[in-house]
Design a protein that fits this description.
By secondary structure, the chain is an alpha/beta fold. 33% of the residues lie in helices and 16% in strands. Helix 5 packs across helix 7.
Length: 340
């Protein structure tokens, strides 16, 4: 068990893992500044350095079995199985992001280890702005006017107010709920779909398979913000796309696996969908020859709709660790059975 500690982190050992060395170093520095009495180290696979113990001495990288004692808490993103082998006595692993499907699929993940995810850390504001941008593009006929420009046309289209664009949001967690309520506050008619019953101000919340078709039928702009679980994989299939209003627009800022790619392309080519904005994909980076790259009705961004901001993320992680040390409850604990 981790030692009892003060708000300075006295006696605690933290190990930071991240595939990006710069991000790993920034996380270590941020956590060390918040827990000055703790021992905060970076972890990197031994293969990345010729002398793991020397690397640890120089940069704070944990050397692994046979070196310094393992950490009490792990923090980071996309840890390999070796990280958990090197730190066998973790009290918890705190993910530096909201999505944890990749972590739950890791073969070396200890089965009883508590996993904690970030719930915002500056991501909600980014996600809201991204989704609002897409809603405004649709509201003001941006794609139609760009098509006119390319064709040399000049035709005014009817003015529309936010009330004229119905937004449907799949997933009403910390991020999805924030986006839904903020769009509703701007006058957009917003419906939300979640795994269970939810209540959000200004949002028409639906749940359950029986309400799925009605939810889709009232979404001129469908935004995917649900976690990836066995139930949500390929959720947006041919049947779901056919249930949307004709010429609806799809926005995916969750996980690429939520969409049946072939069904999406077919719906676009048939005119059932006006277009799609995709920030996430089954394979990232998206392969150079992928059909999405050149499709005239698809807008792509490289998984940037909501990027973890290290400063607020580190503050959230620190707060959760200190609460765990005091035996207090925390939010964000992943329920493995449901996948988030």
């Amino acid at each position: 068990m981790p030692p009892s500690t003060t708000e300075t982190g006295q006696g605690l050992r933290l190990s930071v893992v991240h595939p990006d060395p710069q991000a790993r170093a920034e996380w270590r520095r941020a956590l060390q500044s918040l827990l000055p009495a703790a021992q905060v180290r970076e972890w990197a696979a031994a293969a990345q350095g010729s002398d793991p113990s020397a690397s640890a001495h120089a940069t704070g990288v944990s050397p692994g079995p046979g070196g310094t004692p393992g950490a009490h808490y792990g923090v980071g993103w996309r840890p390999p199985a070796a990280f958990f082998a090197d730190n066998p006595d973790l009290a918890a692993f705190l993910a530096a992001g909201a999505g944890i499907d990749h972590l739950l699929a890791l073969p070396g993940l200890p089965p009883a280890l508590p996993i904690v995810r970030l719930e915002d850390a500056g991501m909600a504001d980014q996600m809201f702005r991204y989704c609002l941008h897409e809603a405004l593009r649709r509201l003001h006929h941006e794609d139609d006017y760009r098509a006119q420009q390319r064709a040399g046309g000049w035709q005014e289209l009817p003015a529309r107010a936010p009330a004229d664009l119905r937004v449907g949001i799949v997933g009403l967690g910390a991020l999805g709920g924030a986006v839904a309520t903020r769009l509703a506050a701007l006058g957009f008619p917003v419906s939300g779909f979640a795994r269970g019953l939810r209540q959000l101000p200004g949002v028409r919340c639906r749940h359950g398979a029986a309400q799925w078709p009605a939810f889709l039928a009232e979404a001129d702009l469908l935004v995917l913000m649900a976690p990836l679980t066995p139930e949500t994989r390929d959720l947006i299939d041919a049947a779901a796309l056919a249930a949307l209003p004709r010429e609806a627009w799809l926005v995916n800022v969750a996980r690429g696996e939520l969409i049946d790619d072939d069904a999406l392309l077919a719906a676009l080519d048939a005119g059932q969908l006006a277009g799609a904005t995709l920030d996430v994909f089954r394979i990232e980076p998206l392969p150079a020859g992928h059909a999405f790259r050149q499709h005239p009705r698809i807008r792509l961004t490289p998984h940037v709709a909501a990027q973890t901001l290290i400063a607020p993320g580190a503050r959230q992680v620190t707060d959760k660790i200190l609460r765990l040390q005091q035996g207090l409850p925390i939010s964000g604990i992943v329920q493995r059975a449901r996948g988030y």
